[in-house]
Amino acid sequence: MSPAPLVSIITVVYNGERHIADTVRSVAEQTYRNIEYIIIDGGSTDSTLAVIRQFGSAVTTVISEKDKGISDAFNKGVLRARGAIVGMINADDWYAPDAVERAVRAIEGYDVAYGDLQLWHKDRAGGIVKGDHRRLGREMSINHPTVFVRRECYQEFGLFDEQYRCAMDYDFLLRLAMAGRDFVHVPGVLAHMRWGGVSDVQWRLACLETMRIKDKYLPSRKLAHRLYYVKQVMAITISRMLR
C-alpha cells in the first residue's frame, strides 16, 4: 500500500437537511487529506442538496436519484469508489477528526479496520459501544460507521445484499469473516452516531434479518440463533418499556 493511499468515503442520504452538514464537515476536516468523498442521495425533496453544494470541492461526487433502498444506495457508492480503502458514514453520523488517518495506519496488513462508536441522544453524549470482530458469529459486534474495508474485498466477495433493509452491513462483514479475511480493532472512538437510524427504528426487522443471516453462514447453529433472537427481542422490549 502506498504511504498515503486514496480513501473513498461514502455517505447515503435522503432528506437529511438537519444533520448532513455535520457529516460532510467531519469528512472535509479530516487530518488525512487523500480522500474522495461520494454522496449518494435518494432524490431528496428538502434542502439536502443545497447544503451539500455549500461545501464545494470537499465533495467529489454527488449522485441524486431514486434508489431501491439503503443496500442499493451503498452499492452505488462502492461501484463509484476509486480508493484502495472504503469507509461509510451515514447522514446522521460524523467522524472523529483523525478517524481516517488512524484507520489507514491500522489497516496495513489487514482487510478490515474498525473502532469504537460514541452514541448521542439529541445533544447529549450516551455510552461508547466498543467493537469486537471476534463476536461476529453471534451478533453485529462491529459498528458500521467506524468500518474501513479494502476495496478489493468488495471486488472479491461481492456488494451488499439488497434483500436486507437493515442488516446488510452485518451480512457483508460476516461474509468476510467466514471467508477468513483479517480484521483489526482501532482503539478509541472513530465515529459518532445519533440514535434513531433505520436499524434503531426498525429494530425488530434488524433482529430478524440478523438471525436469518446467521442461519445462512452458520446453518448448524439455527437453534442457538433462534434462542438468541428471542432473548434479544425480550431485552430490547423491556429496555424500551423502562425508558
Task: Tell me what the structure shows.
Helix 6 (168-178) runs parallel beside helix 8. This protein is an alpha/beta fold and 243 residues long. Strands 1, 2, 3, 4, 5, 6, 7, 8 and 9 form a nine-stranded mixed beta sheet that branches. It contains nine helices and nine strands. It starts with 6 loop residues before the first strand and ends with a helix. It has a single domain, classed as Alpha-Beta Complex (Spore Coat Polysaccharide Biosynthesis Protein SpsA, Chain A). The chain has helices at 20-28, 48-53, 70-80, 99-107, 151-157, 168-178, 198-201, 203-217, 222-242, and strands at 7-13, 35-41, 61-64, 85-88, 93-95, 112-121, 124-129, 148-150, 183-194. The relative contact order is 0.14. The longest helix has 21 residues, at 222-242.
What can be said about this structure in brief?
This protein has a single domain (7-195), classed as Spore Coat Polysaccharide Biosynthesis Protein SpsA, Chain A (Alpha-Beta Complex), CATH 3.90.550.
List unreliable stretches of 5+ residues.
Answer: none
The pLDDT mean sits at: 94
Count of β-strands: 9
The major pleated sheet works out as: 9 strands, mixed
> Mind telling me the CATH class?
Alpha Beta
Number of domains: 1
Q: Distance between termini?
A: 47 Å
**Residue fraction in strands:** 15-25%
Determine the structural class based on helices, strands and strand pairing: alpha/beta
The fourth-level CATH homologous superfamily is Spore Coat Polysaccharide Biosynthesis Protein SpsA, Chain A
Radius of gyration: 17 Å
Helix percentage:
25-40%
CATH architectural group: Alpha-Beta Complex
* Outline: globular
Number of contiguous helices: 9
CATH topology: Spore Coat Polysaccharide Biosynthesis Protein SpsA, Chain A
